[in-house]
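Sequence in, structure out. Go.
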Amino acid sequence: MVVKLTLDDAIYNAGVLGLCKIFDHAGLPYKRDGQTIEFKESNLEGFSEHYFSYLIKEHANDTSYAKLISLQIETVKDEKQLTQLNDTIENVKKWLTSNSYKNTYPFLTDVSFDFLEAANKLKKITLKKNQSIEDVQTDIKEMINLLSEIITHLRHPHAKRYLVPRILSYNLIQGFWTNVSFLHKSANKKDIYQTYDEYFTSAALAFLEKKKDEKKYSKNKFHCAACENKMATVSEAFDLTWLQRVGVDAARKSSHYWDHQRDIFICPVCNLVYSCLPLGFKMAKGKGFFINNNRSIDELISVNSVSLNDGKQEVTRDELESMAYSKIIDFMINQAESRKKMEIENIQIVKYDRNLETRPYTFNILSRNKLMLIDDCKREFQKLVGKFTKLNDEYISLYQEVINRLYKGQNFTDLIYQLIRQVIDGKYKDTSSIYNILRISNHQYKGGVHYMTTEELNKIRSFGYYLKKEYQSQETKLNGISYRLLNALKVKNPSKFMETLLQAYSYKKLSIPTIFTQILNDEKKFQTIGYAFLLGLHGYDGNEDKGENTNE
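Output:
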């Protein structure tokens, strides 16, 4: 029996992508044809082995298990090292006695070691009054030897085979789906491989076996909402209530359906596909994304094949997303060049955040223009990665703030205003990041009358820098000028801005550069020029313009 699956909506497509990744990892053959994949039902036999093998490969490094087996236990020669040893003892004891570990120990039949007994023997070492490190060396060596023994047995392949999937079932998978299979409340002490196959694999194989009887199958009347399969009875079908914040519980909320009659079913094969949903997302620290390029299976796989570490030990969510956009753009440009006539298309980005329990998924469209903006300003975007500040008592990522505004088609001036306000208040110093945001904002107008060249922006910023030098010993007066200029920008009052500027220059018997006349008849240029000037007034050193004539 050949199974055929076709791309559909974003969540289903992420499941299909996860399935393809599992097949590729296991070396199982399948055919990719446009938006469709085809594979033999034999690919699903013992599928849990392939499912968890790929899960371990991709995400084992994000678990407490990885931290445990990578511990370096060294000799203790001073109190600082003793504190570090005690911290290690505390963490190891906490992990080994957690439910995810304790419930897994019965399945480690090939590991002849009692982890719970060892955990109970772990004790912190404290120095009593007048004791030295030398006085407790016997206890230290005993704890180091015990920790080393624990780590040695944890490295056993059988321990990894069971512990890592169990940990990831809570840390990763449960964010996407729950309450069925090994995540059912009654299955926490059962074999995770067996419970997966019992719920997902066996149902899919049984359905495919029945489908071979074409005469009986043709009479089935319940259509799968995701594929072309049909089911004979409702009891043979599945719903999507087990997917987090996606499905509707037909038993409790029948009003969601026409005439209170449930009419959305999925077949056992698609039920298994949805179980692969977590593996279709690229994840970092509980957050991830999926690029729903559904033109074809090949393109879906290619554009989502972003390396998780890019040669680094650990990658942040911002870095991961930044790499993804570069991948999208490179891929789409290459495709456009190979097809000659094809324009770069709109791309759907699905972002996932485990911490947003009521709405973990965010769906955004990156248009051709937005993709080109990211490409043209990739240097500026890259410099925002890993930049954080505190706004309204909350730490924010500048990269995420800019990307989210880009998604929604919002301008960036409110963010620039808040950041410059912090600079003037002495709460923030990274004016170069603000300038990168300003450059991205200005680049939106490229090709139009509101656009300003890089040379013009640098020139305006330098004017702010040279005026600051004139007020070098009058910081209070300079801040007063800055606040008035900033408020004029906030309320979009170019006349008030020019009035303040005229007073500031006249006080030092200087003439205002003629470029400022542009702010009187162009609101967007007014914002760009005004903020560029303020950035020069509060953090620019003038190095970019050495040797350049800045007097007009």
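Check: The longest strand covers residues 347-353. Confidence is low (pLDDT under 50) at residues 248-263, 339-343, 544-552.
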